[in-house]
Amino acid sequence: MFFKSFNKSNTPTWLVAFLGNPGEKYAKTRHNAGWFAADAAEDFCGKPINKIKFKALTSSVSLGGESVFLVKPQTFMNLSGESVAPAAAFYKIPPERIIIVFDDMYLQPGKLRIKRGGSDGGHNGIKSIITRLGTSDFPRIKIGVGEPPDARFDQVNWVTGKPSGTDCALISDAAKRVPNALTEIIQNGFDSAMNKFN
Asked: Which of 30, 31, 123, 132 does the annotation list as catalytic?
């Protein structure tokens, strides 16, 4: 088991943020795929992400031999930076060690994609984090949730809708692979993780 508690005197050297929207209305929606991964992280380490700090639920764990601060923002998605940036500043964690886990409708359901940085891609959570950090040079793990079946379908309604059947199973399975992907990044670097998980 790679996740475990660590002594509070250890300062986190990595930050992992799982993006989603709070409230029962959004609990099982595509836009909350990042929170599916947070649930997987809790199961993986046997430790809840439940300490309130930085407008988020948080937990301090050891992952891949490093001290890691897990963040589950409780702002709405378009304000995610209000949790991530203050947490990173407090622990003096540089952008290249801030990993954001979130949904991507341009990936097929169940696909994972690890990236070192890039634009917001139209994702409001990433847009908020870029604005608050002042840089887009932070790594991401994207969880594919698939595109609407029809180009005329409203994208907001799509991502805030709940997947069903095969899509739901594929997205859940992808989220469960995120803790292993995080471990691989921290232990062996991004190239190794991208080769294994992309």
From this structure: 31
